Amino acid sequence: MSDVLGGTDSHTHTHTHTHTRPVSLSYLLGGRIMDARLLCSTLLLSVTRALSSADDGWFVKVQPEVRGIEGYPVVLPCTFGHPQHSQHSSLQVVWRLGHGQGATVLYRCTSRSGAPTCEPGPKQDQRYRLEGNPREHDLSLRISNTILQDNGRYYCRVEVQGREHISFEDKMGTRLRVEAPPKILGLSVEGTEQSGYRALCRVQGSPLPDVQWLGPDDLLEGSLLRPLAQGSTGHYHTVSQLRDVEPGQQYTCSASNPLGKEQATLYVLPPQPPLSLAGASPPLLLLLSVSVGAKVLLLVGMGVWMVQGGALPGLSCWRK
């Protein structure tokens, strides 16, 4: 810092001093006569180059893109430097998600001279911590247990406390892409006996999973609906529907992307005969299971829902 500030003072002093001298005066330098105009231009050019070098000497270096897997930690590299490796009494590190007024500060810490670590604030989210040491010019950020909502562009900033408050950051930032294997969030059946029943399969993943419906013997044709989740999370959720679901059949929702595959099977049992009394509606039995690899996890053993007036309102079982 002192060299940059000193260069600025030197530039001001030199510029003022040379212009107060008579222009016609000549100097003897190394046995050669140099006109004052040429000397002034040379000095100003030298000072300008020195200042440019000092400004460019501070740099922040980041990685353009980092990819992570949901549930695992990820590190966003960031280093800064100065050609003279200056040491300062206080450095503040700031990491934020997004740019401009909509940016969110995720991490902030202060590194003081002689302190072994960079101290964050008391309300700092523990998912974020500094992986590097600012005194070693390393500002890398570690994010634990990444989630899909961590996707975005991150900006690393170092603020130098001193005679003047100066800060540096990389304007391009680092693009974090969090990927996740498919996850079937739930299956549901809705509709009426008159209009027919349809099955819905809600899926999450990144890249967005491809969803297929399978019958006992063949591939069935489903269709995609608008995502139930809006906003940023809507990029990772999709809902597929299968029309003309019939009692007495089983239907499998299969979701896949480059990171894996998951399936859920829905058994729709035929209505049972009336139990007795007038107006008694026959029950409909559903069995829901989710298979992951070679394992079958039973989410709901067997449930009984009463069909009211031929309708099957909001039958659903959601995997958490």
From TrEMBL:
One of the GO biological process terms: regulation of osteoclast development
Protein name from the UniProt record: Ig-like domain-containing protein
Keyword match Cytoplasm: no
Entry-linked SMART domains: IG
Positions of the Ig-like domain: 70-167, 182-267
Recorded GO CC terms: plasma membrane
InterPro entries per the UniProt record, alphabetical: Ig-like_dom, Ig-like_dom_sf, Ig-like_fold, Ig_I-set, Ig_sub, Ig_V-set, SIG15
TM ranges: 284-307
